[in-house]
Design brief:
The protein has helices spanning 3-21, 25-32, 48-74, 81-84; strands at 36-39, 44-47. It is mainly α. Helix 1 packs across helix 2 (25-32). The longest helix is centred in the last third of the chain and has 27 residues, at 48-74.
């Protein structure tokens, strides 16, 4: 923090976050410092790491579902691995 003004703003921001999100002071400080964030999809406070990991996991699941669907769709195409094993 830069001096008394910076600390006063930090305290005010923390108090505001505590009040609107109804979280403990320690969590409010992490939010104000940019270490944690509110995730509207899960309606929870999450760290940067868990928030980003969750997004990657969700995307990986969607890609895996698409691959599985495409493999089933093309399984009877001439030259596909499934067709040549028949």
């Amino acid at each position: 923090m830069n001096g008394t003004f910076g600390r006063a703003m930090f305290e005010e921001d923390c108090s505001f976050v505590e009040e609107i999100l109804n979280v403990p002071r320690k969590i409010a400080e992490k939010i104000v410092n940019g270490e944690s964030f509110y995730n509207p999809l899960t309606k929870r406070i999450q760290t940067k790491k868990s928030l980003l990991k969750g997004d990657c996991d969700r995307r990986a699941d969607r890609i895996k579902q698409w691959i599985d669907k495409e493999e089933k769709r093309i399984s009877d195409f001439p030259g596909s691995e499934s067709a040549s094993n028949i």
